[in-house]
Amino acid sequence: MAMEGLFKQNKCFIIAEAGVNHNGNLEIAKKLIDVAKEAGVDAVKFQTFKSENLVTKDAPKANYQVNTTGSGTQYEMLKKLELSFEDHVILKKYAEEKGLIFISTPFDFESVDLLENLGVDLYKISSGDLTNIPLLRYIAKFNKPMIVSTGMANLAEVECAVNSIKQEGNDKIILLHCTSNYPTDYEDVNLRAMVTLKDAFKLPVGYSDHTIGIEVPIAAVTMGAVVIEKHFTLDKSMDGPDHRASLDAEELKNMIISIRNIENSLGNGIKSCQKSEESSKRSARKSIVANRLIKQGELISYDNISFKRCQGGLSPVYADEIVGNMAIQDIEKDEILTFEKLSR
Fold first, then answer.
1. DSSP SS3 for 201
2. Which of 120-124, 266-270, 310-314 holds the top average pLDDT?
3. Rounded to whole angstroms, what are the CA distances from 73 to 19, 64, 66, 70, 121?
4. Angle between helices 192-201 and 155-166 (to 10 degrees)
5. Is 309 helix (H, G, I), strand (E, B) or coil?
6. What is the CATH number assigned to the segment(s) 275-343?
7. Distance from C-alpha of 19 to C-alpha of 69, rounded to nearest angstrom
8. What is the spatial distance between Cα 174 and Cα 206, in angstroms, rounded to a whole number?
9. pLDDT digits (tens, 9 = 90+) for 73-121
10. Alpha helices in 202-268 (DSSP H)
11. Rounded CA gap, 138 and 8, in Å?
12. How far apart are CA 235 and CA 249, in angstroms?
């Protein structure tokens, strides 16, 4: 897929992040695709990993993972959330039958090979792998678009990642601003950093959101995001690390509606009277009228004219031009003034 294929009609490319919210269950994963389709997203995304390639057996959980899944190791948690190659085949076919682009984030080399064998159109890189330069280079060699999240990073780390991808001859890069906390507090979003990324690297930018609610991704679209990624779930009360920081089906749908409405409202930036305003313009704009009977031969002054809504007539912008001219006929009260009624 070429980069331009992601940005049809200047619309934001919206990724519904199913992630591991399927809880390792294929039927739940398919229901998530159903929800994503109903909401109107462009793509649905999962995560592809082999637990033994991703974490050591004793790797501790992040604080939010402890809060959502209790004690234990990352390995124990992730092992229950793996999808098999057969699961991937089924889910990709199921998503594409519904007109959605299937995406999955690979977390190791073996998972990249799985997705490449599956024939994915693009790759999404997690924030955790922004500094995994060998993995970035490996994926870059396939010369497919790479959507790269930048949570936890500074500009120097982002620059290193971008350069490593470009050095493999791949410049199809989209950077996502992100805060890697689940959920993210509003004061930690730092949405202006998305603009900083765009200015620094001259690349398309977007936003991967982990806040509660839909306000921040909507705001990101107004600031130029070309990609929005947001976690969603069937039920926020389900067991698992990411459900609580995800949108439910209704919230996801409302986010899509809001984003599309905002996109329509942004327009082309040219300040002009819209076609829909023409009727209002005719009824709301004022014209120059006589505020009393003006007799033939009388000079026009601000004392004998007013500015009122009426049908036709001269705009008040011409007031200075007609003041001092002489009426060549009687002009009744509330009658419009025109240049034809005046000597110039």
1. helix
2. 120-124
3. 19, 13, 9, 9, 33
4. 40
5. strand
6. 3.90.1210.10
7. 16
8. 7
9. 988 888 889 999 999 999 999 999 999 999 999 999 999 999 999 999 9
10. 215-222, 249-266
11. 28
12. 8
326: enclosing H helix or E strand: strand 326-327
List, by residue range, all CATH 3.20.20.70 domains of the chain.
10-266
Residues 6+ apart with CB under 8 A from 104: 45, 46, 47, 48, 88, 115, 120, 124
Look at residue 336 in the predicted model and tell me its pLDDT.
Answer: 97
Q: Phi and psi dihedrals of 84, rounded to 5?
A: -80, 170
Q: Is 62 a residue whose pLDDT tops 70?
A: yes
Mean pLDDT, rounded, for 304-322? 96
SS3 label, residue 104: strand
Q: How far apart are CA 250 and CA 41, in angstroms?
A: 13
Q: How far apart are CA 286 and CA 217, in angstroms?
A: 42
50-61: pLDDT as tens digits? 889 899 999 898
> Could you give the CA distance from residue 256 to residue 113 in angstroms, rounded to a whole number?
32
Which ranges in the chain are annotated with CATH 3.90.1210.10? 275-343
Pairing of strands 101-106, 205-209: unpaired
DSSP per-residue codes, 154-199 = -HHHHHHHHHHHHTTT---EEEEEE--SSSBPGGGT-THHHHHHHH
Joined together, the tokens standing for residue 108 give 């190791």
CATH for the 10-266 domain, from 3.40.50.920, 3.20.20.70, 3.40.50.300, 3.40.640.10: 3.20.20.70
Count CB atoms within 10 A of the CB of residue 164. 18
Which residues, 6+ apart, have CB-to-CB distance to 287 below 8 Å?
307, 308, 309, 310, 312, 313, 314, 315, 316, 336, 337
Is a pLDDT exceeding 70 seen at residue 175?
Answer: yes
